[in-house]
């Protein structure tokens, strides 16, 4: 495989990672119904070391608006409660002595618009990442041209890079439209 093909393949793979990151960030933004993924990334203090919540407790959905967190050790209740509060996800945990329950309030119109803005911010971050990847790829192509690659091959590679960028930016838009539709549905 030539250096040019390697660069173009790497470009596409890196842009795919940006889309994967966007998807994982969008799943953390709640759309009115409870989801265990809302608690992904929340860290709790497990005997002095920060540990992911899902590694010290069982996270389940009781109904459309209730998440239950059942720690594997009863002594972890306080630490889990603190971790959820520190994560600032907009939900106050209810501790009943054995489980922690999170009751999701119904979304107001104002809160829905706020969540859509947050989604759009994540989308913009993904677009910036994709454009930065494009810039780096084009710089690598120009470097290959200085090392003896023909001008026609460079122009074709730059065009292919731009087409790939356009495709991935359209994919970001598609994800954002779907998430906005999900959030705004009452």
Short descriptors:
6 strands, Topoisomerase I, Chain A, domain 4, Gyrase A, domain 2, single chain, 4 helices, alpha+beta, 186 residues, two-stranded antiparallel ribbon, 4-stranded antiparallel β-sheet
Structure report:
With 186 residues, the protein is an alpha+beta fold. It has 2 domains: 3-28 and 108-184, Ribosome-recycling factor (Topoisomerase I, Chain A, domain 4); 36-103, Gyrase A, domain 2 (2-Layer Sandwich). It has helices at 3-28, 77-87, 109-146, 151-184; strands at 43-46, 49-52, 57-63, 66-71, 93-95, 100-103. Helix 1 packs antiparallel against helix 3 (109-146), helix 1 (3-28) runs parallel beside helix 4 and helix 3 packs antiparallel against helix 4 (151-184).
Reading off the top of the CATH hierarchy, the class of the largest domain is best stated as: Mainly Alpha
Q: Helix proportion of residues, in percent?
A: 55-70%
Mean pLDDT: 86
Describe the biggest sheet? 4 strands, antiparallel
State which percent range the strand residues make up: 15-25%
Number of H- or I-type helical stretches: 4
SSE pattern: HEEEEHEEHH
Count the domains: 2
Number of strands: 6
Q: Unreliable stretches, pLDDT < 50, 5 or more residues?
A: none
Shape: elongated
**Main sheet strand line-up:** 3-4-6-5
């Amino acid at each position: 495989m030539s250096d040019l093909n390697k660069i173009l393949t790497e470009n596409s793979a890196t842009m795919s990672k940006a889309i994967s990151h966007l998807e994982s960030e969008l799943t953390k933004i709640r759309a009115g119904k409870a989801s265990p993924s809302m608690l992904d990334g929340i860290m709790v203090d497990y005997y002095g070391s920060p540990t992911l919540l899902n590694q010290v407790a069982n996270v389940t959905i009781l109904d459309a608006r209730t998440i239950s967190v059942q720690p594997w050790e009863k002594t972890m209740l306080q630490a889990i409660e603190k971790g959820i509060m520190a994560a600032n996800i907009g939900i106050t945990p209810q501790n009943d002595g054995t489980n922690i329950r999170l009751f999701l309030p119904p979304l107001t119109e104002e809160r829905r618009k706020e969540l859509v803005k947050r989604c759009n911010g994540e989308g913009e971050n993904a677009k910036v990442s994709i454009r930065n990847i494009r810039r780096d790829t084009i710089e690598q192509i120009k470097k290959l041209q200085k090392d003896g690659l023909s001008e026609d091959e460079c122009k074709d590679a730059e065009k292919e890079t731009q087409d790939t960028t356009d495709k991935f930016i359209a994919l970001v838009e598609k994800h954002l439209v779907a998430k906005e539709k999900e959030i705004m549905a009452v």
